[in-house]
Design a protein that fits this description.
The chain is globular, with a radius of gyration of 17 Å. The chain is α/β, with parallel strands linked by helices. Helices cover 30% and strands 25% of the residues. Strand 6, helix 4 and strand 7 form a beta-alpha-beta unit. Helix 2 packs parallel to helix 7.
Length: 249
């Protein structure tokens, strides 16, 4: 599958790149970002996938979080796809910030007219990893996944449906039916997050489900932090380290 390079920038000794390709699953052009650490020049590195939240593109994480310094230090290739198909000309896809464009939710749609293009689950778990494995110096046996907001939910869905595929998980969502291999979950939550205070996130429900299934989870409620990329940038290094301890083991 042909890749078109959109940009390339030197960053912490590595390269932050953006590519475009024609997606088979989504039937549209898609962009993804990939950070290649200095270690990728001499050998294969682990692959860490980041899933962004509502309204984001591949640009938000790579330009606002500052993850590249930690990724360079630990030798991780970090991949950040866009959050939805774009330009599909489906009626209503641009009407709301939380449904349609920029809001693919990392699931496969089952209803018309969405099911032809909105197949983000298959894209991030099958098509994109195959593309990355074929074109970049990554070790397909060392993969991990994390995300924020809608992407945190998506990361855990991907992990729970594919036991053993990802080495560590960092998300907030359903775990009650999980019966796969041992997982290690790290969650940071801003205490001043407006989505927490209005009852949309419900981390207590997730923690209770983990407790019932005897799945270890570290949940850190961060005083004074909200839902923004200022919050992400503050704690992203901890999460890179969390994944690196498994990917580099």
């Amino acid at each position: 599958m042909a890749l078109k390079q959109i940009s390339s920038n030197r960053c912490f000794g590595g390269l932050q790149k953006v590519f475009e390709h024609d997606s088979v699953e989504l039937k549209c052009k898609m962009r993804f970002a990939v950070y290649l650490p200095p270690q990728a020049e001499s050998g294969k590195c682990p692959a860490l996938y980041w899933l962004s939240g509502l309204t984001c593109t591949e640009q938000n994480f790579i330009s606002k979080s500052g993850f590249q310094q930690a990724a360079s230090e630990h030798g991780l290739v970090v991949i950040a796809p866009d959050t939805s198909p774009r330009g599909c000309n489906i009626k209503g896809e641009d009407d709301s910030w939380d449904f349609g464009t920029g809001a693919g939710f990392y699931v496969n749609a089952t209803e018309d007219p969405w099911k032809t293009n909105y197949r983000m689950y298959s894209y991030v778990t099958e098509e994109l990893p195959q593309l990355i494995n074929a074109n970049f110096p990554v070790d397909p046996q060392r993969m991990s996944i994390f995300g924020h907001s809608m992407g945190g939910h998506g990361a855990l869905i991907c992990a729970l449906k594919n036991p053993g595929k990802y080495k560590a998980y960092d998300a907030t969502s359903l775990v009650t039916s999980y019966s796969g291999s041992q997982i290690d979950i790290l969650i940071d939550q801003g205490k001043d997050d407006e989505f927490l205070s209005n009852g949309q996130l419900l981390p207590d429900n997730f923690i209770a489900a983990c407790t019932e299934k005897k799945i270890p989870v570290v949940f850190r409620l961060q005083e004074g932090y909200d839902h923004s990329y200022y919050f992400i940038a503050t704690f992203i290094t901890d999460h890179i380290r969390h994944h690196a301890k498994y990917l580099n083991a």
